[in-house]
Write a structure and sequence with these properties.
Length: about 625
């Protein structure tokens, strides 16, 4: 292939110390599974993480073995081979959890400052002997990584783990020579870097990640970060600019950013660091598509871009960008369902990539079906679209019926919301993929049992979605009342004073947008004690942070709507007090209910009949995608 013209900066080679990489994409670590990303052909693959102090304060879990020990080293060597299979350079993350380490019962963790954690574990303030032991552990691990065949290493000096705990006044409360000024706070981190460099020699590439902004009161200042990086550059080859903290969840929503945060949130910091150092700069954080990546590199804000979640959504992101077909990249929704912290380790997966976490049974490429069959799908929401594309991949004849004049189902409306750019991109992706296929898409076609019978399907998939719930509230048919779909699609119908009945994810985001961006006076009324209960933990924190910016927004929890009148809404608050909320517009956002009646009317036409998505039970995109994929993959 000749030099790529669409993304010339992204696919230009780069020398990192003694090694050459073929492009500027780093596949960042996200868990220990990286084979898919390696085959996607990034320039560098960070092949998971390893700890530096086995048997002590460990990174992943107490008692975790040392990756380069006698009985583990061959398995670790396999990581190099897996990372190399697509031509990438193999890196490995080296980290120490410090005060957050998981330790054996009765053991202690270590950190810059001593205290007792909430879980009762003692954190001991590190003395000189501990510091030397940790630095020696980093040096040995780095050298072992080099000797087993890794092309470079990735030192995790960000997100509130051990080394950056020394850098940050949030964690470092010492009064000796390792505390106070940044010159003191960076003494131990610089010692670690110096010993690592001495251990691996001058020609072995070292990348170091830092948090440019910890997003916590009392965290490290960017000025101090800059001071540290300027000193650190004599020992390293690349600094990767990240932000936030991991265990402090209020800051974790910037490390793993939600849909409420701008794309490329760390680019401004990377640019400022690049202007002040002589080493390479990589940047991570909501770099969603090749156009954004190319722009960052072209503007000189960084030398490399690091991707984590975008490569979960589509491990072939680099290949598709290289081939100049970004429209075929499955976009990440930034929903954080792939992150064990946000999901409390339940239902961890990807909303748009069924294979993620299911690699053992969801194949990379579906085999063709033994015989071509006619598959009819009713409803072109995310479940129906995924089923249609999957059945087509299997080689079947696919007829996709949709009663509206557009595909997307519920996400057609969600995509119109300001904070749902990623959903908009996903909807566009589905439109393009269905348009490229020879799926027989019939819009403006309301399916009936008679119509389906006439089509004589071999298998029928019903994905008719859900209907907005209409709660039994007196006056709900008042002229000032509209449903949430109508509110999203017809903003011109919304007055200055708005009451939203229902504080689920839909009601909360409509309220946020109307108050923060449209400057309307909004009250969200929610009968439970929790806003956006369907959202995962980090989504809810991100939502709350954004809502804190909305001065015209009021949220009333544990509040019941009693009556709607043309003048407003009567509610009873958590104290049992009756309040009148004046409202030009009342938006009903009380969730959705499965359209089972419609769905069930199609049974009895063919033995192979399946209900998927919201018509079975209100779903997340993740569940709709998985159901659409798995049912169609088996046909």
């Amino acid at each position: 292939m000749s030099m790529n013209l669409r993304y010339p900066h992204l696919f230009s080679p780069l020398k990192i110390n003694s090694i050459m990489v073929s492009n500027r994409i780093i596949a960042n670590p996200m868990g220990q599974v990286f084979a898919e990303k390696a085959l996607g052909r990034p320039g560098v693959v960070v092949a998971g993480s390893v700890i530096t102090q086995p048997g002590k304060s460990s990174w992943e879990s107490a008692g975790q073995p040392y990756a380069f020990s006698k009985y583990q080293v061959e398995k670790t060597r396999q990581r190099v081979l897996i990372a190399h299979q697509g031509g990438a350079k193999a890196s490995i993350e080296i980290a120490h959890a410090g005060q957050y380490a998981r330790v054996e019962s009765g053991d202690f963790a270590i950190g810059p400052t001593g205290y007792v954690r909430e879980d009762g574990v003692e954190v001991r303030e590190m003395d000189e002997a501990m510091m030397e032991e940790v630095a020696a552990g980093y040096a040995k691990t780095a050298k072992d990584a080099r000797d087993v065949g890794f092309d470079m290493i990735f030192l995790h000096f960000g997100h509130g783990w051990l080394v950056p705990e020394f850098l940050s006044p949030l964690f470092n409360k010492r009064t000796d020579e390792y505390g106070g000024s940044i010159e003191n706070r960076m003494k131990f981190p610089l010692r670690v870097l110096r010993e690592v460099r001495e251990a691996v020699g001058p020609y072995f590439p070292i990348e170091m990640r830092i948090s440019a902004n910890e997003y916590m009161l009392g965290g490290i200042s960017f000025e101090d970060v800059l001071t540290f990086v300027k000193e650190a550059q004599k020992y390293i080859d690349v600094v990767q600019v990240s932000c936030g903290l991991d265990i402090e969840h209020e800051a974790n929503v910037y490390t793993a950013s939600t849909n409420f945060t701008e794309h490329g949130l760390n680019v401004k910091y990377a640019k400022a660091i690049k202007e002040n150092v002589d080493i390479l700069v990589s940047v991570v954080g909501a770099i969603m598509n090749p156009d954004e990546a190319e722009r960052i590199l072209a503007e000189g804000a960084a030398d490399l871009v690091a991707l984590a979640r975008p490569l979960v959504a589509d491990p072939d992101w680099p290949i598709k960008a290289l081939e100049g077909r970004p429209e075929d990249i499955v976009p990440c929704l930034r929903c954080l369902q792939c992150y064990h912290i946000s999901t409390n380790r339940r239902n961890v997966g990807c909303s748009v990539n069924p294979r993620y976490t299911n690699e053992s049974w969801v194949p990379k490429k579906l085999p063709k079906a033994e015989s071509r069959r006619r598959i009819v799908i009713v409803g072109a929401g995310p479940a129906g679209c995924r089923a249609a594309l999957t059945a087509k991949e299997r080689g079947h004849e696919v007829i996709l019926l949709e009663k509206r004049d557009h595909i997307g189902g519920a996400i057609h409306y969600v995509a119109m919301e300001h904070f749902k750019v990623e959903v908009r991109d996903y909807l566009e992706y589905l439109k393009i993929q269905i348009g490229k296929s020879d799926i027989d898409l019939r819009l403006n076609t309301e399916a009936t049992p008679e119509m389906i019978r006439a089509l004589q399907p071999d298998a029928l998939i019903i994905a008719v979605g859900a209907l907005p719930a209409k709660p039994p509230i007196k006056g709900i048919d008042s002229p000032n009342v509209i449903g949430f779909y109508e509110a999203i699609e017809h903003e011109e119908k919304i007055g200055e004073n708005v009451v939203i009945i229902g504080g689920g994810t839909i009601g909360a985001e409509i309220g946020l947008e109307l108050s923060l961006l449209k400057k309307k006076n909004v009250t969200v009324v929610e009968m439970t004690d929790e806003l956006a209960a369907q959202g995962n933990m980090l989504y809810k924190i991100g939502l709350r942070h954004k809502m804190d910016e909305a001065e015209r927004l009021r949220v009333m929890l544990q509040t019941n709507c009693q009556e709607i009148t043309p003048a407003g809404v009567f509610v009873k608050d958590r104290e049992g007090k009756e309040i009148m909320l004046s409202a030009d517009t009342v938006i009903i956002a009380a969730g959705v209910r499965a359209d089972k009646r419609t769905a069930e009317s199609f049974y009895g036409i063919t033995p192979e009949t399946y209900m998927i998505g919201d018509c079975e039970k209100p779903r997340k995109i993740q569940e709709a995608t998985m159901e659409g994929y798995t049912i169609a993959a088996g046909l």
